[in-house]
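Shipment paperwork, digital attachment
Item: protein structure file
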Amino acid sequence: MNFGFFGVQFSFGLQQSNMSAIYRYLGAEESELPILWLAGPVTGLIVQPIIGAISDGTWSPKFGRRKPYFLLGAIIASLALIAMPYSSSIWMAAGLLWILDAANNIALEPYRAFISDKLPKKQFSFGFLVQSFFTGLGTTVANFTPAILVSFGILALTDKMNNGIPVSTYWAFGIGAAASIITILITVITTSEYPPTSEDLKEIQSSKGNKNLLIKTFQDIIFAFRNMPVAMKQLIPVMFFPWFAMFCYWQYLTSALSLSLYGTLDETTSFFNKAQLLTGNLNGTYNIICFSIAFAMIPIAKKIGPKKLHFFSLAIGGFGLLCMPLLNDTDILFVLPFGSGIEIPQIYLFSFCMGIAWASMMAMPYQMLASSIPTNKMGIYMGIFNMFIVIPMIIQIFSVQYIIYDLLGQNPINIIRLSGIFLIAGGIFSLFVSLPAKADSI
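Attachment content:
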């Protein structure tokens, strides 16, 4: 059921670790990076509520309710991934990112509702934490793929295409395209969907006869907004601060590492290339932690509840980001007993903390939401809930672009520090969410 989520997150992982570097290789300035990331939040803001509402009103005995949408999204995303490394200009890469993010959002939103459709409420923690496992696994493989290709001597660090983009990035995006479509197909072929109730089926059939389907879709979205459960409203700051923080993190980590560890922001140097590969390794590591502890979080969520677990997890992640500029890549934390030994430098310490925060972000808010909304409106409310992710991203883009970057001394390290503070703030707000008594102990 969750296996296709691996492919969706592989695609997102490639974006998170490589898009800023791709823009820099194509000539973008540091200050231009936020606006070039606008595609993700805007497409999410537009696509997810609409797809959610439409999928709620979809049913085919042969194809199901949600599966047609995440299959379509996977096909389009695969084509965009293949084309991305061939970008000849900043705006070609930005245009492809718009297509890629729209496709990923078409696939992602129905997948959230798909889990809620299939599971009883008492299994929501388990279902969303399993989804968190595949989120971590898919993003981990995506993040490590370029480094693996270089480390094993398949490609050289200095191998580049004519546009300046490393050949390792080209191969990673090709592998991502294959992963996206293959894993979604496995879910589509092997997993069935429950048919809607007789009442829901009547509503679906009546909507098919409505010539103004788009108008009805927007009416449903407006109605859902007006009747939003209290707990869902209280989740707004819980989502706002961490997702603002994560967008800062993804945009500026490579530059922050290059400046912190190597003292340069010059993208033409080998040090910047090293920082890009290290970004993939660090992001891959926090996703390893994510999928490694996802199942361990299940009994903890049952014991202390999703609110407290989310608070502690985000606080740990925020502390890790605040410590990141103090860490280095020369002191060794420990050695993994593989081959002649794999040394893990001190810089990976913050990545371990981020893995705990990321596992919780991928599961706990969705559990809190799913336990508070009507089952026959899962698609539309999951789509609206995504607005709580993408609106902070849009605010982040314009505020960092025109105010915060200058205010913080045009220093990417300070942007990472701000991310840490915002993660902790999101955790504090999670303690004030009002949940049904049963939901708080699931």
